[in-house]
Design goal:
The protein is of the alpha/beta class. It has one domain: 3-Layer(aba) Sandwich (Rossmann fold). It contains 6 helices and 5 strands; from the N terminus they run αβαβααβαββα. The chain has a 5-stranded parallel β-sheet, sandwiched between helices. The model has no long low-confidence stretch (mean pLDDT 97).
Length: 190
């Protein structure tokens, strides 16, 4: 058991290091885009399925609540949380529309849409991102494996090129935390 623990920790650390070595600048640019949107009165819309839904909620909570310091709340919405909206849209329009309908209702040009999908091929995330592009939102994706169809469809693609969903999600939440920290620090005057 101890060997498995050590192997898991070492694999996670190596993947995080390799991701941030290759993508540090891209993460910083996305943080600036999020800051620009928030300072301009916009919002961040986050969405994904399963563990990625939990990550979307986690990141939104850090922005609306606080991350490391007291500050005014920042406008972020996880489109994964309202069971009546999710089940109503899924029932009436099909599950692939659960986030797209919400992006169409809530998104405005200049807002930031962040789709999270370890495969990069989740139909509900792809549909929402298509609407985000149509409406003029800034588009970003956190993906795994080869990025799937989602990666090439967004302006900011943060891809963790690994096959294990759990390892990819460990990097995704670290990306989320770093984005929150960078945005919070950038908005010190807020």
């Amino acid at each position: 058991m101890n060997g498995l623990i050590r192997e898991s920790v070492e694999q996670s650390i190596a993947l995080k290091k390799s991701f941030f070595d290759a993508n540090e600048d891209l993460v910083a640019v996305l943080a600036r885009e999020i800051t620009r949107a928030l300072e301009g009165g916009g919002k961040v819309l986050l969405f994904g399925n399963g563990g990625s839904a939990a990550d979307a909620q986690h990141i939104a909570a850090e922005l609306v609540g606080r991350f490391r310091r007291e500050r005014p709340p920042l406008a972020a919405v996880a489109l994964t949380t309202d069971s009546s909206i999710l089940t109503g849209i899924a029932n009436d329009y099909g599950y692939e529309q659960v986030f797209a309908r919400q992006v169409r209702a809530l998104g405005r040009p200049g807002d930031v849409a962040i789709g999270i999908s370890t495969s990069g091929n989740s139909p509900s995330v792809l549909e929402a991102m298509a609407v985000a592009r149509e409406l003029g939102l800034v588009t970003a994706a956190l993906t795994g494996r080869d990025g799937g169809r989602l990666g090439p469809s967004v302006q900011f693609h943060l891809n963790v090129p690994h096959e294990l969903t759990d390892r990819v999600q460990e990097v995704h939440i670290m990306i989320g935390h770093i984005l929150c920290q960078l945005v919070e620090e950038s908005m010190k005057g807020s």
